[in-house]
Amino acid sequence: MKNLEYAFRSYIGSQDRECGDSFTHDDGLFMVVDGFGIDSLTETVKEETCQIVPRAFFKHLSENKNPADALVFAVEEANKKIIEERHRLGEKVAASIGLIYFLDKIMYFTHLGDSRIYSFQAGELNQLTKDHTVKEEDPLAEKKYNNPRALNALTHGLGIHEKPVVQVKKYPVDKRCLIILTTSGLTERVSNRDIAWLSKKVKKPEKIIRALINLDKRKGGSANLTVGIIKCGGLTKMLRNRLMTYSVFFLILAAALTGFVMRSGSGDQVIEKFPEEQPAVQDKTIKVDKPAEATPVKEVHKVIVQPIIKETPQEKTAFEVENQVSIPQQVVKENSAKGQSHEVDQEKLGADYQGEVRSFISEWVNAWEKTAGAKGDIEGYINFYSDRFGAEGFNKETWRVDKEAKNKRKSWITLKAGNIKISNSTKDGHIEASFKLTYRSSNFSGSSKKTLDIVKEGGSLKIISERTY
């Protein structure tokens, strides 16, 4: 991949930094690193890692021509140095690292700890790494430990094991792909759905990073974090400067021609047509070389390839996706199958369906408010939904599980539906109700536009799908 447009930024305490010792990028190699332990030592560890890894990687790559081997070698060299520091100082210190390298249309990547790597491609966010933490690797961890620090403790990382298991994976990228590297400081509060939504709505890497950091701040984040975004196939800085130069040149030329024509037509003079043989001003086109086709790479080092963890992006507002829970895929499939097998004929709405729908929305809002807290009434809320409900990858049952998990952590919720617009009943018995929803809770506030698709079943109105903008 020849053209890579990228941006990196660290937020350390209250300081927003464009450069620092928490990331590095050099000739197709990109890395983020986060330290754990005594503050003074973690800064030293990060600085040394950012120096050792690129030097070791490119040295090994020039000798062996194998990116996978070079990544393993670089991580092992950094780990060796941190282990030496731990023994010398007698202090516990470790680091989390995310590391990638681009070769043609293939991305080689590895990680240790809880620094994450994502791809956003074809409108879908894929989490390419799984956190090396007690919570992620022990299914019974939450029953064993009540302390969040114990749950988030690293099982693998730089400086933890004398001989770390370094797994290198390969991932194909195209010219529309975004690659996201981030430390755990961001993902503690910003969900994968937030990342997917912002990646879809915001185009420039530096603007996506700004939006992610601002969202983390709004959600109460105070931890140090680093974010890097690489846009594959983007225009290089040199090419953007050339395009800007040519654009300015043509604007000046166009202005000069316009002035000449206006002067020629001043007074009572008749503007003569230009002779047909006079050449027209021609646009110049900047030729951008296409990315080179991927070529097979011979590998000497054995590369362990694991399945990619995928998470489908949902187009929601930030307050809709906060505290999003992960629902096992098997549960989704089983409940989807149940929902598809349930068939109910739509009943005709009465002449005064407008008033009926408005009353239904008011009752639905009240039921939503009552879901807050550990003893919230989730059943009263979910009864407003059809058994055939489906939206944003959820069916009725998984929607209930998701809402219950999020809302039980809120002590209160207040909602207001305003500017309600209800469409005429369609031939299949569906109607649409669109409105502005103002949302406030004990840990978040916001507003969005929502549309409900409503049908009548068993004498009652039911929501069959809903969308949030």
Question: Brief overview, please?
Answer:
It is globular, with a radius of gyration of 28 Å.
Question: Tally of extended strands?
Answer: 18
End-to-end Cα distance, whole Å, is 34 Å
Tell me the number of structural domains. 2
Helix fraction, binned, reads 25-40%
The percent range for strand residues is: 25-35%
Number of helices: 14
Largest sheet: 7 strands, antiparallel
- The quaternary state of the protein chains shown equals single chain
Structure description:
- The chain is an alpha+beta fold and about 475 residues long.
- It has two domains: about 5-230, Phosphatase 2c, domain 1; about 320-469, Nuclear Transport Factor 2, Chain: A (Roll), CATH 3.10.450.
- The protein is built from 14 helices and 18 strands.
- The protein has a seven-stranded antiparallel sheet with strand order 2-1-11-10-7-8-12. It has a five-stranded antiparallel sheet with strand order 3-4-5-6-9.
- Helix 1 runs antiparallel to helix 2 (about 65-90).
- It is globular and about 80 Å long.
- The model is unreliable at about 265-345 (pLDDT under 50).
